[in-house]
Amino acid sequence: MIVLILSLDTSAAACSVALRQDGKTLSKSIDYMDRGHAEALMPMVKKVMKSARCTPKKIQLIAVTIGPGAFTGLRLGIAAARGIALATGTECIGLTSTETLAASLMNVKVDGCILAIMSSKRSDVYAQAFKGNVVPITEPSAITPKDICKYFSIFCDNSSSCTLVGDAQDLVAPYLIEAGWNIKKSLSIFPDAAILAGLAEARWKLGLPYRPPKPLYIRPPDASIPKNEGRLRN
Predict the structure, then answer these.
(1) 175, 158 in Cβ contact below 8 A?
(2) Tell me, what's the pLDDT at 217?
(3) 41 with 30: CB under 8 angstroms?
(4) Helix (H, G, I), strand (E, B) or coil at 26
(5) pLDDT at 162 over 60
(6) Whole-angstrom Cα distance, residue 30 to residue 194?
(7) Which residue of 113, 115, 116, 126 has the smallest Cβ count within 10 Å?
């Protein structure tokens, strides 16, 4: 079964879009940014579609990262994916940012576990552990860097190798090294839409379970509805 997949990632300090078909990336665009995802995303979608000479009606599956990650970025990417799916009548599926990061090492020999570590822009990080074959050991969690060792020592053997992926590798590495972990850093910093599309293709073809395109929030956002629901008081 040949499926044309459009994938979107806006979960971190990067924005990426990819088109994949029959195991091959047809077109891809990635831009690194802390802000500006809203302005960048749809032009990137158009660029990727034009490069692959593809029209929206040909898309058979849409994949989007659902978190953990930046609240605004997640909402933007998911809203865009849902909108395109609605307009084209296409199925839309969600995959986590952390599993997309871990899958970047799918074709690399990895001993021990993989720790996907993403910056939350706060005092903690988003983290998830995987076996070497990218099978999740834990659920995504928000943990302070100093508590990383205590949390993951239950699931991972610190005497074996541990490969880090994500943009918060440097935040947690000193704590892991101090605790005696044998760690390896990687060049996988942000989730990649091309990797995301590969995951979606495998899940879809094998009929494996996937998450709906809804935000995976590890904790509530900073913003909250003001008293009186924002209405002016009389």
Answers:
(1) no
(2) 87
(3) no
(4) strand
(5) yes
(6) 10
(7) 113
Out of 3.40.120.10, 3.30.428.10, 3.40.1190.20, 3.30.420.40, the CATH code matching 4-98+191-206 is 3.30.420.40
Query: Strands 91-95 and 61-65, how do they pair?
Result: parallel
Q: Please identify which residue in the block is written with the tokens 């806006």.
A: 10
Specify the pTM: 0.91
For the chain, what are the domain ranges?
Answer: 4-98+191-206, 105-184
Distance (Å, whole) CA 82 – CA 213:
7
Distance CA 183, CA 111 (A): 10
Cβ-contact 5, 62 below 8 angstroms: yes
Q: Dihedral angle at the C-alpha atoms of 163, 165, 168, 171, nearest 10 degrees? A: 10
User: What pLDDT score does 160 carry?
Assistant: 75
- pLDDT tens, residue by residue, 63-109: 999 999 999 999 999 999 999 999 999 999 999 999 999 999 988 88
**Residue 213 · residue 93 · CB < 8 Å:** yes
What are 119's two structure tokens? 């910056």
In this structure, is the dihedral angle defined by the CA atoms of residues 133, 96, 62 and 47, taken in order, positive or negative?
negative
Q: Is residue 155 within 8 Å of 177, Cβ to Cβ?
A: no
Query: How much is the pLDDT for 134?
Result: 82
